[in-house]
């Protein structure tokens, strides 16, 4: 158990719809990162939030957006869902956004777009 | 991002040490080596990380060569539950994000 919780665990959406995924970070952690993991591949970095501000972004289109709240929990929003958005979405929290600070992952949300 | 090279798969007998190699020949001086593992359909699990000195914790040991171009993760006394994909990652400063760049990892299979 890492103390990082994600909800929901599974979700099915229709192409064109919007989805919101939620992440509760480990106590005391102010940094949250989101990753997308397609089947058979390693996780790909979407973006990171530090103290409620976006602190880096991967190669994902603007329809992927996020928020971090004062309690450091976070949301990932995806608009205009496409079939290729079907993946495991992972949230990771860390004590701070530093190179030598480990990140702890939640169990992920499995999103299926039909 | 500094690239890592790992074997696609490895086998290990239960009770023996699992030694997982990783090459990172383009690593820079301030970049850390991280190891995570992922058991099927679960979130990645942090194992260990290091800069240049060898590191040990309750899960594993990390041996980094003096030139830092390669490293080995040692999981002593492997059990069936250690069967997973093991990712070697060089963590870089990207001007924001300090992201973990996962490759395809090594599928370790621990057998009786």
- Secondary-structure-derived class of chain B: mainly beta
- Classify the secondary structure makeup of chain A into a structural class: mainly beta
Count up the helices of chain B.
0
- The shape of chain A, in one word, is globular
Widest sheet: strand ordering of chain B = 1-9-8-3-4
Q: Calculate the mean pLDDT score of chain B and round it.
A: 92
Low-confidence stretches of chain B: none
Overall radius of gyration of chain A: 13 Å
Q: Please, how many helices of chain A?
A: 0
Helix content of chain B: under 10%
Strand content of chain B: 35-45%
Helix content class of chain A: under 10%
What oligomerization state is this entry in?
heterodimer
- Largest interface here, residues on each chain? A-B, 30 and 29 residues
- Give the radius of gyration of chain B: 13 Å
Please report the total strand number of chain B as a whole number.
9
Uncertain segments of chain A? none
| Total beta strand runs of chain A | 11
Distance between the termini of chain A: 31 Å
N-to-C order of helices and strands of chain B: EEEEEEEEE
Q: CA-to-CA gap between the ends of chain B?
A: 38 Å
Quick summary:
The complex is a heterodimer of chains A (114) and B (112). With 114 residues, chain A is mostly beta strands. Chain A is 0% helix and 50% strand.
Question: What's the structural blueprint in terms of helices and strands?
Answer:
The complex is a heterodimer of chains A (114) and B (112).
Chain A: E1 5-7, E2 10-13, E3 19-24, E4 31-37, E5 44-50, E6 53-57, E7 64-68, E8 74-78, E9 87-94, E10 104-105, E11 109-113
Parallel strand pairs in A: 2-11
Antiparallel strand pairs in A: 1-3, 3-8, 4-5, 4-9, 5-6, 7-8, 9-10, 9-11
Chain B: E1 9-13, E2 18-23, E3 32-38, E4 45-50, E5 55-56, E6 61-64, E7 70-75, E8 84-91, E9 106-111
Parallel strand pairs in B: 1-9
Antiparallel strand pairs in B: 2-7, 3-4, 3-8, 5-6, 6-7, 8-9
């Amino acid at each position: 158990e890492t103390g990082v919780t994600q909800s929901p665990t599974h979700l099915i959406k229709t192409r064109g719809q919007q989805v919101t995924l939620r992440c509760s970070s480990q106590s005391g952690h102010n940094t949250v990162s989101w990753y997308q993991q397609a089947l058979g591949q390693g996780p790909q970095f979407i973006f990171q939030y530090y103290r409620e501000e976006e602190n880096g972004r991967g190669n994902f289109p603007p329809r992927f957006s996020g928020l971090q709240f004062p309690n450091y929990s976070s949301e990932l929003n995806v608009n205009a869902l496409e079939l290729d958005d079907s993946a495991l979405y992972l949230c990771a929290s860390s004590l701070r956004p530093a190179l030598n600070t480990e990140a702890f992952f939640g169990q992920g949300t499995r999103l299926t777009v039909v | 991002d500094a690239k890592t090279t790992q074997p696609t798969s490895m086998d290990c007998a239960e009770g023996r040490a699992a030694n997982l190699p990783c090459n990172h020949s383009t690593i820079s001086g301030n970049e850390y080596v991280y190891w995570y593992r992922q058991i099927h359909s679960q979130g990645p699990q942090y194992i260990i990380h290091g800069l240049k000195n060898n590191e040990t914790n309750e899960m594993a040991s990390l041996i980094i060569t003096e030139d830092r171009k390669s490293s080995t993760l040692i999981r002593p006394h492997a059990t069936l539950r250690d069967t997973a994909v093991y990712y070697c990652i060089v963590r870089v400063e990207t001007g924001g994000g300090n992201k973990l760049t996962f490759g395809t990892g090594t599928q370790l299979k621990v057998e009786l």
